[in-house]
């Protein structure tokens, strides 16, 4: 375990606040450690000589050296206890005590002081407000939960201690096993990033799962998880998906909820498989921990029951997998071997009187088919079929073909023995066919994640100082917004814009129009008017001779619409041919956890109505930028659907890369919209700009 060996494999555990008082957390900790831990248990409490048969020490200084300190004293005494452990050389500490950042301003102050003490003594601290930690190989149950987990290869972190106790109780009934379990609590020092990295290096952990209410540093999480998920699967439940859920999470363990879009984008970029329920979390984990890599997406179904076979087929259709098409040899062999009433096309229905040998024949032939990458054995209980024998057959065939197999042996207690046989050999059994498919689907998704091309962002040649000077204009205004008058910001980062100028009188507008070939577009320029088209603040196709009158009309409309608006003038802009082009949008919104979120989608007046967009956490490389373009529903329009000339996709991708660099270079940019970004066969042009700047961060 490297850095965390003292946390999960300690030789001596000290409980500061240990007691033998019935119903106390201090007693539960000693009792839980006593049950399985083969190391030394050291109670520390000045009010006790012994605790449950163990010698009790009055303070840390008088106790033997401690590898792991567990603190369960009142909040006011926690800082002194952790400081004493630091003075004694203990570098691994779990603070069980609540009453810190989750409890208000006084608790938040106490948590800041706790963090400072931990930093002073270089302590790896879990909590506060933690249930504790478990390590099943060491028999370590340093929690006040009721039971230790079964020993396995899944490592589990949770921001809710209650979630751990409920899950472990359920998991023990389900036969789901764990390696390490940690209740991260308020994450004053150690957080999800630390445990991702630690468990990725742990040879005994083959899947990492977790329940999180918030991620403190989204950028660090994405970077760490990208590295981890290239080998070790990570599956998370992230609560607070709805507005109501996010509000609830913000008051629990002091979590600050970020936007759901940010989490969706960040977790996906990080290669994390996201589950929405506890069942999904562990259905995915069981498939990922026990099964080998898929050679193809084709799934074979072997069943003795027509209805469950159809349900399984539907579930495959809803997943990223596909129903395998058997080749002619497979159909010929199955036709000869199966009863006339059997179905030999996938799914294979061996019918209700099938014995184990008939199941074996069908399964072996299916796995021999070159189009099959995995198989699901679905069975309803019958009088002629012993589930234990069926389980042994599945394992025998699995070992011969080394192809991922999951089972769906349906029924009650008669399944238990067979399920244990399968579980011990790493084959997950599910009652529901859709859950069996979910286990395989998680495997396919992880294979896709490990095969992703990860490229670094391109470093474009840009003019940062020019961009900075443009952003600084916001400091001279009554608000912090910039508009089309600041289009030079895009030009400084190499994003194409049409010829244009901002003018403050009609004669100057005419002069600008004279220098532009053809008709022009004119727009009111005001940081106070966001939707210029809605108030008649945009005029398209204006001949040069009408420019002066149009100028007066635009200003008058703006004054009538919003008398107190700040009118900077009118933009006179070269017209862009939209007949062969598509209006798109590129933009950015800065999330409190993940930082800049890049957006791409169908633009113009439809962006808020259709919401056809894709989102990524910046910075991004070319691969991510290209996938943003491919993801939107309108992508076929850009690629030349129905006879349209294709847009210059490379120019869109480059624009996303340049925008990524801009918003990464300048954290002061809070929001930015380029709408529309007109994408045509000959490239792109940014037509309009709106930005919000945090002037204190320039």
TrEMBL record:
One GO MF term: acetate-CoA ligase (ADP-forming) activity
Alphabetized InterPro entries for the sequence: Acyl-CoA_Synth/Transferase, ATP_grasp_subdomain_1, CoA-bd, Ligase_CoA_dom, NAD(P)-bd_dom_sf, Succ_CoA_lig_flav_dom, Succinyl-CoA_synth-like
EC number(s) from the headed UniProt entry: 6.2.1.13
Catalytic activities: acetate + ATP + CoA = acetyl-CoA + ADP + phosphate
Enzyme class: ligase
Keywords per UniProt: ATP-binding, Ligase, Nucleotide-binding
Keyword 4Fe-4S: no
UniProt domain CoA-binding: residue ranges: 7-100
UniProt keyword annotation of Secreted present: no
Superkingdom to which the source organism belongs: Archaea
A Pfam family it matches: ATP-grasp_5
Classification via PANTHER family: 3-HYDROXYPROPIONATE--COA LIGASE [ADP-FORMING], ACETATE--COA LIGASE [ADP-FORMING]
Protein name per UniProt: acetate--CoA ligase (ADP-forming)
């Amino acid at each position: 375990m490297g850095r965390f060996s003292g946390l999960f494999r300690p030789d001596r555990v000290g409980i500061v606040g240990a007691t033998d008082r019935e119903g106390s957390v201090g007693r539960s900790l000693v009792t839980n450690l006593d049950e399985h831990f083969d190391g030394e248990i050291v109670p520390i409490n000045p009010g006790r000589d012994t605790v449950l048969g163990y010698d009790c020490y009055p303070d840390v200084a008088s106790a033997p050296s401690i590898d792991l300190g567990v603190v369960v004293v009142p909040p006011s005494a926690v800082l002194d206890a952790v400081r004493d452990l630091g003075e004694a050389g203990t570098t691994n500490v779990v603070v069980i005590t609540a009453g810190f950042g989750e409890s208000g301003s006084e608790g938040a102050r106490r948590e800041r002081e706790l963090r400072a003490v931990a930093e002073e003594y270089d302590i790896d601290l879990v909590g506060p407000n933690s249930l504790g930690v478990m390590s099943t190989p060491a028999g370590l149950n340093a929690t006040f939960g009721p039971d230790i987990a079964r020993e396995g290869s899944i490592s589990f972190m949770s921001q809710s201690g209650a979630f751990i106790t409920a899950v472990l109780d359920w998991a023990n009934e389900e036969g789901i096993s764990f390696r390490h379990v940690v209740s991260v609590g308020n994450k004053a020092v150690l957080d999800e990033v630390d445990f991702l990295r630690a468990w990725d290096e742990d040879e005994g952990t083959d899947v990492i799962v977790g329940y999180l209410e918030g991620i403190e540093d989204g950028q660090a999480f994405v970077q760490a998880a990208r590295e981890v998920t290239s080998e070790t699967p990570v599956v998370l439940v992230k609560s607070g998906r709805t507005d109501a859920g996010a509000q609830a999470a913000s008051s629990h363990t002091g979590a600050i909820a970020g936007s759901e879009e940010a989490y969706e984008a960040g977790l996906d970029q990080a290669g994390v498989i996201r589950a929405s329920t506890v069942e999904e979390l562990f259905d995915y984990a069981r498939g990922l921990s026990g099964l080998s890599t898929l050679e193809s997406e084709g799934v074979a179904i072997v069943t003795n029951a027509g209805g469950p076979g159809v349900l399984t087929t539907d579930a495959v259709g809803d997943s990223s997998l596909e129903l395998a098409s058997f080749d002619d040899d497979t159909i010929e062999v199955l036709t000869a071997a199966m009863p006339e009433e059997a179905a030999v096309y996938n799914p294979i229905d061996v019918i209700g009187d099938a014995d184990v040998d008939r199941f074996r024949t069908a399964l072996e032939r299916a796995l021999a088919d070159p189009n099959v990458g995995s198989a699901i054995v679905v069975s309803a209980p019958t009088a002629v079929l012993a589930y234990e024998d069926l389980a042994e057959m599945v394992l025998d065939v699995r070992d011969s073909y080394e192809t991922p197999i999951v089972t769906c042996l349906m029924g009650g207690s008669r399944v238990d023995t067979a399920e244990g046989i399968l579980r011990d050999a790493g084959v997950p059994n599910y009652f529901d066919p859709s859950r069996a498919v979910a286990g395989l689907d998680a495997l396919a998704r992880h294979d896709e994640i490990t095969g992703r091309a990860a490229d670094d962002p391109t470093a474009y040649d840009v003019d940062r100082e020019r961009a900075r000077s443009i952003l600084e204009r916001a400091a001279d205004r009554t608000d912090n917004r910039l508009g089309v008058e600041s289009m030079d910001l895009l030009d400084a980062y190499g994003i194409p814009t049409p010829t244009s100028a901002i003018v403050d009188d009609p004669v100057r507008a005419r002069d600008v129009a004279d220098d532009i070939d053809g008709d022009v577009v004119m727009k009111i320029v005001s940081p106070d008017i966001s939707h210029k088209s809605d108030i008649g603040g945009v005029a398209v196709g204006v001949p040069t001779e009408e420019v002066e009158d149009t100028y007066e009309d635009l200003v008058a409309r703006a004054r009538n619409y919003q008398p107190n608006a700040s009118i900077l003038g009118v933009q006179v802009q070269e017209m862009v041919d939209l007949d062969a082009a598509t209006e798109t949008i590129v933009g950015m919104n800065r999330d409190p956890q993940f930082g800049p979120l890049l957006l791409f989608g169908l633009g113009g007046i439809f962006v808020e109505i259709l919401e056809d967009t894709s989102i990524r956490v910046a910075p991004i490389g070319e691969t991510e930028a290209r996938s943003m373009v491919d993801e939107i529903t309108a992508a076929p329009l850009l690629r030349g659907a129905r006879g349209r000339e294709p847009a210059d996709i490379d120019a869109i991708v480059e624009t996303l890369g340049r925008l990524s660099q801009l918003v990464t270079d300048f954290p002061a940019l809070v929001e930015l919209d380029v709408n529309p970004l007109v994408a045509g066969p000959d490239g792109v042009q940014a037509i309009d700009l709106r930005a919000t700047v945090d002037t204190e961060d320039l």
